[in-house]
Amino acid sequence: MLMGLFNNWVVILLMMIGLYIVIAHGNLIKKIIGLTIFQTSVFIFYISMAKVDGGTAPILMDKITAYSNPLPHVLILTAIVVGISTTALGLALLIRIKESYGSIEEEDIQKQDLLAQSEQEQGKHDSNHGDKIT
Amino acid sequence: MIVAVAIVRMKDLFATIMLLGIYGLLSASFFVAMDAVDVAFTEAAVGAGISTLLMLVTIAMTGRHEKSNRHKPFLALFIVAVTGGLLVYGTLDVPYFGSADSPVHNHVAPRYINDSQAEIGVPNVVTSVLASYRAFDTFGEVVVIFTAGIGILALLSVVRRPEDKDEIDSINDSMHEKHLVIRIVTKMLIPFILLFALYVQFHGDFGPGGGFQAGVIFASAIILYAMLFGLSTARKVINQTFIQLVAATGVLLYGSVGIVSLLNGEKFLDYNALAVNPIDGQHLGFLIIELGVGFTVASVMMIIFFSFASRNEMQKSTGNGKGKSKSRKGMESKSC
């Protein structure tokens, strides 16, 4: 009886794997992969929603009465292509991050940021002192 | 099946990306099993082909190995478990898989299935919903793809100095002369891939296919060419400015169909206005719009690949790009 919900559970499992990767991994490429898995799980959710027992692909033909729902197919079809272009945009950002930080590990980047910030503040303090003295 | 692949995915980067490709292919076959042939088509081309490729190019630039330390894995696991549990609890009310009376199938879908043949005259319902009933959405999505292409160009475009061009050319040529067998086989295959892309483009009304899939397939043929014959050769075949122009043309083509139907006194993107007979108008609208989508998708995919690859080349030629970034950082700290 509960087997009817099996598809949803597979989707949830995939989604949670994606979420786990995004949260727990420091490597930014790994994070993007996690997002891709998350995305695919949503695709699978929509497509499995569109399935009708005994239906066929929604291409109209004589003698066939049941079709699966075409609307989710359309949504996901375009979502896949949009997904790849946004993923590519993410990867492009990542390449730029690598170029300016020399690393794509989250912790390294944060360390460098903190370092730069503290240096900046010190610099400000120094210049303030300088102003007061003059 | 899918689950197994997904769980294995906690390893190193190169292997991970290969697994991602397999995962894409598997989900494509899953979509076929779910009767979503159009979607499967797209997923096979995108998930198994292009996304794997892009990830690989990125890895070539950013390094292959992941640091092993994960921060707060248990906290993450806890959050994930709680969210997952809540979601599973939520599914208990969801209609069962494959049941024909679930709310999804009772809204607009019956109308699409029952009336689209009479209203639009195209057997593939997915195409008719995509290009006619929901043309507005599709237009928005094409614009998003176009914007992503522009963004990538802005982030990664390389201003090419003429003097180091010859050097890069020679590197390329020496690299690509080696794989003789692959080159010949690819040379034979590429015309067929292009032909197939055109078939998918123009046959989308009757079978699975359409502008999105055709665009991706077309782009992958060109990318294959670029990988085997070197970037500079590919650039000679396909002019960069030309591709960018084509990407813009695709969006414009789509939009102008809408404008034409506005001028004819109908709503935006209402193809009935394009010809005397509504069905003919629909067919005409489909043709132009799918062409616009195909143009944009194909050229944006090519733009993405070319800008990634030429960035890679540039990094190689300027000593891995590290020296440059360090000097830039030095400049920044000085200016602070």
Describe this structure in words.
The complex is a heterodimer of chains A (134) and B (336). With 134 residues, chain A is mainly alpha-helical. Chain A has four helices and no strands. Chain A has one domain (10-106): Helix Hairpins (Orthogonal Bundle). In chain A, helix 1 (6-24) packs antiparallel against helix 2 (28-50) and helix 2 packs antiparallel against helix 3 (70-101). Chain A is elongated, with a radius of gyration of 25 Å. The mean pLDDT of chain A is 78. Chain B is globular. In chain B, helix 7 packs antiparallel against helix 12 (240-263). Chain B is mainly α and 336 residues long. Chain B contains 14 helices and no strands. Chain B has two domains: 1-64, no CATH class; 121-320, no CATH class. Chains A and B meet through helix 1, helix 2, helix 3 and helix 4 of A and helix 1, helix 2, helix 3, helix 4 and helix 5 of B.
Helix and strand succession of chain B? HHHHHHHHHHHHHH
Proportion of strand residues of chain A: under 5%
CATH class category of chain A: Mainly Alpha
Helix content bin of chain A: over 70%
Q: Any idea what the radius of gyration of chain A is?
A: 25 Å
Oligomer: heterodimer
CATH topology of chain A: Helix Hairpins
Give the helices and strands, then pairings:
The complex is a heterodimer of chains A (134) and B (336).
Chain A: H1 6-24, H2 28-50, H3 70-101, H4 106-133
Helix pairs in contact in A: 1-2, 2-3
Chain B: H1 2-8, H2 13-33, H3 37-62, H4 73-91, H5 109-119, H6 125-133, H7 135-156, H8 165-176, H9 180-203, H10 211-229, H11 231-237, H12 240-263, H13 278-317, H14 322-335
Describe the structure concisely for a colleague.
The complex is a heterodimer of chains A (134) and B (336). Chain A has helices spanning 6-24, 28-50, 70-101, 106-133.
Q: What brief labels describe this structure?
A:
heterodimer; A: 134 residues; mainly alpha; Helix Hairpins; 0% strand; B: 336 residues; 2 domains; globular
